[in-house]
Sequence to fold (152 residues):
Amino acid sequence: MTATDRSIELVNAAAQAAADRLAHDIIAYDVSDVLSITDAFLLASAPNDRQVKSIVDEIEERLTKDLGVKPVRREGDREARWVLLDYVDIVVHVQHSEERVFYALERLWKDCPELELPADALATRGKSAEHEQRRQAAEEAGDLRELGGELR
Fold:
């Protein structure tokens, strides 16, 4: 069994919304062969809690407005470190970059086929590593202005 056309449509819309809000390392997996509860997982991350919330809000707004769907469940809002949007057909995980590294969901789903995503979403690959390198360089250089501005 593979992800349905509707699931792929939802994944692509959510991935584009996440990319528009500057999410990092967007990736999607077809988990339909190993899970009966959903067809696909979309993973994205951001370097701070406020951006995690912004990405989640944009995904929810875009899917509601453009495709007429609302999540049946939204978890993790309070801390905004790992927010889950459950649309039944797909599950969206938006994580703070630290949680993304710690939980390494990609390792869990690495045997599942990766879904094609819009070009803007693909362009986000490696952004977390770039951000961390810039943050460390700014910290080492003592550039507090750059650190205070939360690098993107």
Summary: The mean pLDDT is 90. The first helix runs from residue 5 to 20.
